Known about the structure:
The protein is of the alpha/beta class. Helix content is about 30%, strand content about 25%. NADP nicotinamide-adenine-dinucleotide phosphate binds next to helix 1 and helix 10.
Amino acid sequence: MEKIRVVLYGVGAIGSTIARLLLQKEGVEIVGAIDVDKNKVGKDLGELLGTNKHLGVTVSDDSRKLLSKACASVVIHATSSYLKDVYPQIAPLAEYGVNVISTCEELSYPYATEPELAKKLEKLGTKYAMTFLGTGINPGFLMDTLVIALTGVCQKVDSIKVDRVMNAGTRRVPFQKKVGAGLTLKEFKEKMKTKAITGHVGLEQSIGMIASALRWDLDKIIVEQVEPVVATRAVASEAIRVKKGDVAGLRQTAKGMMKRKPVIALDFQAFIGAKEEYDAITIDGVPPIHEKISPCVHGDYATAAIIVNSIPKVMNATPGLATMKDLPVISATVEDMRKYV
Length: 341
Ligand SMILES: NC(=O)c1ccc[n+]([C@@H]2O[C@H](COP(=O)([O-])OP(=O)(O)OC[C@H]3O[C@@H](n4cnc5c(N)ncnc54)[C@H](OP(=O)(O)O)[C@@H]3O)[C@@H](O)[C@H]2O)c1
């Protein structure tokens, strides 16, 4: 079998991390890169990644032209969180018969907020014998797929609670800014109004995916408003100082309601100075389960990993629109990638 040919669509922070990981892998090669950023278009991917190595892959802003020649098996897409924005980017890729794996949060379980677009993607995938998948660390794994896997050992599940607490100070600076670290409360509220701060995207998708796996017919999903986490003492990362009383980050919660009771509750917190970083899953059921990963899984490394590790599973999948709950368990691809296809 020839090497698996991959095209990158979106060479930002995550796309670049994915590219660096792909370059270390055997049995897979990057044969194209797409981006709209004028500072990237026309440049060699190696230069953009700072590898000091010419890779012979020039960043293009013309996805159709590139795909018509690339003979690719997979497009790895990482541009935006919302399916309305992403749909016009990924839908035309189907006709090239190439599989699409995206970090788009809403694509992880598009039936939650964009059921019409989900149906269109299903149809396109089936028509052109390719598969769409949205995945990542969260949504895509920690607050949904891992939870679903843990319920596999339960005889009975009454309710589920998932907490993810991250010290934003150990993450890249754009992420620290994205959670509002260093702002005054007034600035934070203004940025919330203008949607410069949106909070975490994915809680509805994670709840939708868990409920679907358990065949729970939820009355509704309630996503609470994003709340600032106010620093109770001065805290700092290498790049941002937060004064006592200013915003260190944010917290967002959501619940899935069934018969007016919260049966799935998710709590996401990301702020500078978090004393303990962890991912915890508590299942009230038979047997009861309390699983805690401490420190919490590093999102950027893990997102790149799960995207790359899902390549063979997506290549082997039934055409259409896949979600993580439908695919076989994804493992690390530590050997030549072709061994997993
Ligand atoms: N599911 C998960 O767990 C997970 C984890 C990490 C990230 N994500 C999501 O993945 C997405 C990418 O993250 P990131 O940190 O890499 O963002 P980023 O640094 O902003 O990179 C996105 C890149 O895509 C480019 N782009 C935007 N629209 C495009 C289009 N229509 N066609 C081609 N290129 C386009 C951007 O160019 P411009 O800068 O010129 O717009 C930028 O170069 C975000 O939505 C993020 O929330 C999800």
